[in-house]
């Protein structure tokens, strides 16, 4: 917990007009086993960081790290992003390592890039057998940071036509994992030419991602 408190202090408690002076804060992409394309959306996180640095006055490093689920290096990153379309597999060591990371102050954002849901839910049950994903109401802080989303998670890609939903895992009252389903924020963060999203759609996705970073870096 100390290590994460130090990282958060590096980020500082910021309002929208403040400037984060430190440049050693870095976010990471989770590399998991099972055959799923953990590496999907390669331009998404760099674009999100650039957007946050411009619009929130953050100073997050532009280089995105890659970290494996079972690696001790995961504790170096206050925010880890996980995405893909297919299979996910955690062994006992990986599940325990991820649990320790999240209990210790880390944060995991899972973004279903379509087709991930039936695989990621049972694997997260290995991490927190005692917890269930709960849908966050539109009044949750994550939707009410620098940018306001009165209807909750925005819909970015159609997929099955279902409404976008944001689910959370709470450990002792603290949100440790945010799971975006039927939304596909990562596709919205990518370069415009990749998915040919409208500027309005990309802006919604980037603003929601910025809210997510702001929430993680300013929570108690």
Can you walk through the features of this model?
The longest helix is centred in the C-terminal third of the chain and has 20 residues, at 199-218. Helix 3 (92-103) crosses helix 4. It contains seven helices and seven strands; from the N terminus they run αβαββαβαβββααα. With 220 residues, the chain is α/β, with parallel strands linked by helices. 34% of the residues lie in helices and 17% in strands. It has a seven-stranded mixed sheet, with helices on one face. It has helices spanning 2-11, 44-55, 92-103, 117-127, 185-189, 192-195, 199-218, and strands spanning 28-31, 65-68, 79-84, 107-112, 134-135, 165-171, 174-181. It is globular and about 40 Å long. It has a single domain, classed as Domain of unknown function DUF4159 (Rossmann fold).
List keywords for this structure.
220 residues, alpha/beta, seven-stranded mixed beta sheet, 17% strand
Note the topology:
Layout: H1 2-11, E1 28-31, H2 44-55, E2 65-68, E3 79-84, H3 92-103, E4 107-112, H4 117-127, E5 134-135, E6 165-171, E7 174-181, H5 185-189, H6 192-195, H7 199-218
Parallel strand pairs: 1-2, 1-3, 3-4, 4-7
Antiparallel strand pairs: 5-6, 6-7
Helix pairs in contact: 2-7, 3-4
Short précis:
By secondary structure, the chain is of the alpha/beta class. 34% of the residues lie in helices and 17% in strands.
């Amino acid at each position: 917990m100390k290590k994460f408190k130090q990282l958060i202090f590096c980020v500082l408690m910021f309002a929208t007009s403040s400037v984060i002076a430190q440049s050693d804060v870095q976010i990471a992409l989770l590399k998991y086993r099972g055959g799923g394309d953990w590496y999907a959306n390669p331009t998404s996180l760099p674009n999100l960081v650039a957007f946050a640095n411009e619009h929130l006055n953050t100073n997050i490093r532009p280089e995105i790290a890659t970290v494996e689920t079972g690696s001790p290096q995961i504790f170096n990153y206050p925010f880890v992003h996980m995405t893909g379309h297919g299979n996910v597999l955690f062994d006992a060591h990986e599940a325990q390592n991820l649990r320790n990371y999240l209990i210790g102050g880390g944060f995991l954002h899972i973004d279903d890039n379509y087709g991930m849901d039936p695989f990621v839910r049972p694997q997260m049950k290995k991490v927190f057998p005692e917890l269930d994903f709960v849908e966050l109401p539109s009044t949750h802080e994550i939707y009410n940071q620098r940018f306001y989303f009165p209807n909750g998670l925005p819909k970015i890609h159609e997929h099955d036509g279902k409404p976008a939903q944001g689910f959370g895992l709470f450990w002792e009252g603290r949100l440790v994992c945010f799971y975006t389903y039927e939304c596909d924020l990562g596709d919205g963060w990518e370069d415009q030419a990749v998915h040919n999203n409208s500027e309005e759609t990309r802006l919604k996705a980037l603003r929601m991602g910025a809210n997510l970073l702001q929430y993680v870096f300013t929570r108690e």
